[in-house]
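REQUEST ID: PR-0412
SUBMITTED BY: lab tech R.K.
PRIORITY: routine
TASK: structure prediction, single protein chain
INPUT:
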Amino acid sequence: MDKNFWYLKNCDLFERLSQDQIAQVEQNSSVRQFGRGNLVYLPTESSDAVFLLLAGRIKLYHITGDGKQALLALIEPGELFGELAILGGGERDEYAEAMLKSTILRIPGNVIQELMQHHPEVSLGVTKLMGLRRQRVEQRLKSLLFRSNRDRLTYLLLDLAEKYGRLTQQGVLINIKLSHQELASIIGSTRETVTVLLGEMQDERSIEIQKRQIILRKTQHLAQTIDFKLTPALKAKPDQSGEYMLKGAEA
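STATUS: complete
OUTPUT:
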């Protein structure tokens, strides 16, 4: 067994399995490397496997009728994606693309299905995963309806802060680098519009941009403008060292 065993053991879905059971999953799985910009899978491909991201970052997206990307989710190390295979296959309906150089463990769908049959906790974990992912997509879609570009961008920045935020003396640092085009793809806007809006927010000192990373300087004010409910962590103050890592944020 190699380091893939460790990744599987530390994945929420498999943490309660025995060493022998995890070893069996590992033996039936394979590791693949993807360079930045490489596609992991395409729509219409057979969904006969699920994927565990070991390193890097993956984005899931659709292509709209006018050729624009509509981003569905960002996948971080330790997360599963391509879970349609668990439901019995069929064709993929989204693109999966490496945003960074990525290492992925491919797990055959029948291996997960067998685990679900014999381990209720795995079945519950899969159901929870699908439910949470669907909930996030629905919340994002709701945030796009009847909102201005400004409000949609504000919602996105707060949403990213909850997942990637690090509290500093200057404010909440969103510890992920996304281009203006990528931000536009998520909110269904254009790169030019996002650039203008970010400039306006900087002029208002609501945000600060440093090396493609965004710091929310007035988090509570931004949340109030769109009626966004902040988590307690985002309301916290930095510790004596000047920083406080939010739960779930990257180091």
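NOTES: The CA atoms of residues 232 and 246 lie 10 Å apart.
REVIEWED BY: pending
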